[in-house]
Amino acid sequence: MRLRQRLPLGLTFGAIALLHAALAALLAVALAHWLQDWAAVLLAILIVAPGLVYHVYRVLAPMRSLFRALAGTVASYRDGDFSFGLSWAGGGELGELVAAHNALGDALREQRLALMQRELLLDTMVQNTPVAMVLIDPGERVVYANVAARKLLGDGRRLEGHAFAALLEGMPEPVREAFERGDGIFTVGEADQEEIFHLLRRRFRLNGRRHELILLRQLTAELRRQEVQTWKKVIRVISHELNNSLAPIASLAHSGSELLRRGQLERLPTALATIEERARHLEGFIRDYARFAKLPAPRREAVEWPQFIAQLREQVPFRYEGPAEGLARFDVAQVEQCLINLLKNAHESGSPPEDVVLALRRGGDAWRIDVLDRGSGMNDAVLANALLPFYSTKRHGTGLGLALAREITEAHGGRIALLNRAGGGLCVTLVLPD
């Protein structure tokens, strides 16, 4: 928007108007002197006034035009249109005002462009993520759904404006049950057609109104890959243990037959004892795997802590720190096996026996159990993998002790954590809710 400055021309007209007014005034005075009448003065005013009004209007016209242009661009900014600018040929305070106004327009235009680019990038990322995302308003209607959500819940159709409950009615029963339960993993289909999903629901306020964000992530391919890797690891571990036991057994059986053939019976008991030891080790190894694979659901019962601690001390030594009384509810056999494994690990860590501690304390609606030692602790890599099944740093370890402890704790609705202690040693924490 361009404006022409007409102030110099206006000043010229103003000077002419003033000259015109002066001549008219002189004429009025002369007439008044001649007529000696007030009518002459009135006549002079009537002659001068139109010229003054006209020339003042001409002088102020450029400024009025500028102010109208400023008001128009401000209205455009309010409507989100930043494509306007002003041009003013003169300087002075009006020139500074126009320059500041144009600078404001440039800044708003750049900010708007940057915001649009960020919104476009964010929308592109959200639309192309494999996680199905659905935003629901307080009226339980869909206000946003990305491409993955449309494919999963609407066969590719747009979901905006639809009632979410109506969309769920057309979904398989496992999906509806999963939404009734809340966050978690669920499966759809059977056998080879089974699909695994993770559901996450979060509520928040948007523009002062409660909304809900639903995230559905398909885990089938990822879990299948992890399952294959786990089976490969299981096969490697089992093969390793079987070879470590069967190879000596086969060799010693052959040696025993040779000793028997040669009549060297005095060395035969040693060979048979070694065969027995390796066979029992293999039996224990298979039994541990079977226990881990067939862990039943916990059978909770009321347990007095003093009695449970005393029973635990009969199987493995430790120093107890905690209350003298208390009542909890858990599966005695499972939790006992879990703590036995942890306490044995503490003794095998290189810790002095007197520094192996079981600490118990109440926290909210749960019991916290800490198994402490002053051994060598764990490095970061071991800490990150210690709770995984079949992971072990011991030469003859099965990698199931900590994994079994985790399985038992989580089956009780609790959690387990490992942390290196200041000054050396390890702290294994179990949290068992009531």
TrEMBL record:
Its EC number is 2.7.13.3. It comes from the Bacteria. It is found in: Membrane. SMART domains: HATPase_c. Coiled coil: none annotated. The keyword Kinase applies. Gene3D superfamilies: 1.10.287.130, Histidine kinase-like ATPase, C-terminal domain, PAS domain. One of its GO terms (cellular component) is membrane. One of its GO terms (biological process) is osmosensory signaling via phosphorelay pathway. The chain crosses the membrane at residues 7-32, 38-57. InterPro entries: BphY/WalK/GraS-like, HAMP_dom, HATPase_C_sf, HATPase_dom, His_kinase_dom, HisK_dim/P_dom, HisK_dim/P_sf, PAS. Signal peptide: none annotated. Keywords: ATP-binding, Kinase, Membrane, Nucleotide-binding, Phosphoprotein, Transferase, Transmembrane, Transmembrane helix, Two-component regulatory system. It is an enzyme of class 2 (transferase). It catalyses: ATP + protein L-histidine = ADP + protein N-phospho-L-histidine. PROSITE patterns: HAMP, HIS_KIN. It holds the Pfam family HATPase_c. Residues 68-113 form the HAMP domain. It is a multi-pass membrane protein. GO terms for molecular function: ATP binding; phosphorelay response regulator activity; phosphorelay sensor kinase activity; protein kinase activator activity. Its main location: membrane. This is histidine kinase.
